[in-house]
Fold this sequence. Notes:
Layout: E1 2-3, H1 8-16, E2 23-24, H2 29-43, E3 50-53, E4 56-59, E5 64-67, E6 70-72, H3 76-87, H4 95-102, H5 113-125, E7 132-134, E8 138-140
Parallel strand pairs: 1-2
Antiparallel strand pairs: 3-4, 4-5, 5-6, 7-8
Amino acid sequence: MLTGASEDEDLVDGLGLGADDYLAKPFAFAVLVARIGALARRAHPRIPPVLEHGDIVLDTAKRSAQRAGRPIALRPKEFGVLELLLAAQGRVVSAEELLERVWDEAADPFTGTVKITISRLRAKLGEPPVIQTVAKAGYRI
């Protein structure tokens, strides 16, 4: 929240109404930029350079994937989906979140793009299957 109201009561009210941060005028532009950066880091925690689950290894720096020591050739979107699912560490990731974080803002949310990419990724990862569909919620590894 960026406002001219600078009393403590105003700050408490603003945060109580759902603001993630509160900055009263006047303010230094560098402080605003730093606070936006801090909020962005909280929203999407850093992904470690190497993600592993069972026999799957994804090296985000080298943009390489392996399963049981065998290299897997992944398209950019397949790599992005696998990266996000591995980074979620068992948390269910919705199709909407995958679209938002792996595709660009022009992606049509009503297409089967995510399902098709998940299907291709499952085929490339092979047996036993590691990507689970959670009905009406999304996907997880």
